[in-house]
Amino acid sequence: MRGLKGKTAIVTGAGSGIGRAIALRLAAEGVTVGVFDINEAGAGDTVKAIEAADGKAVAVACDITDYAAVTAAVKSFESSTGAGTDILVNNAGWDTPMPFLKTEEAFWKKVTAINWFGPLHMTHAVAQGMAARKSGRVVNIASDAGRVGSTGEVVYSGCKGATIAFAKALAREVARSNVTVNTVCPGPTDTPAMDAFVGTGEQGQKIRDAMVRGVPLGRIGVPDDYPGLVAFLASDDAAFITGQTISVSGGLSMHG
Ligand SMILES: NC(=O)c1ccc[n+]([C@@H]2O[C@H](COP(=O)([O-])OP(=O)(O)OC[C@H]3O[C@@H](n4cnc5c(N)ncnc54)[C@H](O)[C@@H]3O)[C@@H](O)[C@H]2O)c1
User: Fold this and answer.
1) Residue 106 falls inside a structural domain
2) Distance, CA 176 to ligand 1 centroid (Å)?
3) Distance 13 CA to ligand 1 centre (A)
4) Residue with the nearest Cα to atom 21 of ligand 1?
5) N or C: which end of the chain has fewer CB within 10 A?
6) What is the set of active-site residues?
7) Is 209 inside a domain boundary?
8) What is the mean pLDDT of each run of 10 residues along the chain (256 residues)?
9) What domain count does the chain have?
């Protein structure tokens, strides 16, 4: 894709699932990737996989819920590359299914800290440099849950909806600084998060089968369904696209 070679990117939650697939693809496009994750072992494995494919990556331990830790981690990545960050992919996320009326405040705070404050912290820490340099790309990984809602994921859906609206408002603020902000919405996807969500036994399989029945293209997602769009949005080919929300979910939700 045009304009990616030699750039630097931070991908949060790149130690697993969708984030790892995005990190591998950006590295294959010639981008030096900061593999940000609270799970150091997972981040290390992603870096090894990138290096095995002759790519460049740095593992950075970072809890995105902690603003001071985020600013220190961004500083450390930028001093290791010797450059500002060109691309930020806000991918890290977490949830566990529970009916809203059975949830408690501590759970709301955890879901909100990761899925809502996390992208705020990361974007605030990274986009200031982008605006000053008059160049940057922010891509959020939200969810179709943020567009159409998801039973058992009420607070998470709220955070993902907030992320979508946040991207649109920020896109307006930073457009004249040549920074674009777009959001990709996966549907149900086969990752470790999905295993934790539905379980792996017979009951888990039943839930997966029901999910597949709801997808026009007849399957749930895999991590490799997303990196192409993320790389495109980060590339020069997407220079005139900002504030957009795009679902990658096999037609599960369709938006005009
Ligand atoms: N898997 C799905 O069905 C699905 C569907 C829609 C949207 N999404 C979204 O896609 C993104 C990636 O999900 P996934 O399925 O690959 O999940 P995953 O659990 O496989 O990976 C998430 C990664 O985020 C990291 N992480 C969690 N909390 C963190 C924190 N506080 N600081 C830094 N890193 C943290 C985890 O360690 C993990 O490596 C998430 O934003 C998720 O909400 C996933």
Assistant:
1) yes
2) 31
3) 6
4) 16
5) C
6) 156
7) no
8) 97 98 98 98 98 98 98 98 98 96 98 98 98 98 97 97 98 98 97 86 87 95 98 98 98 95
9) 1
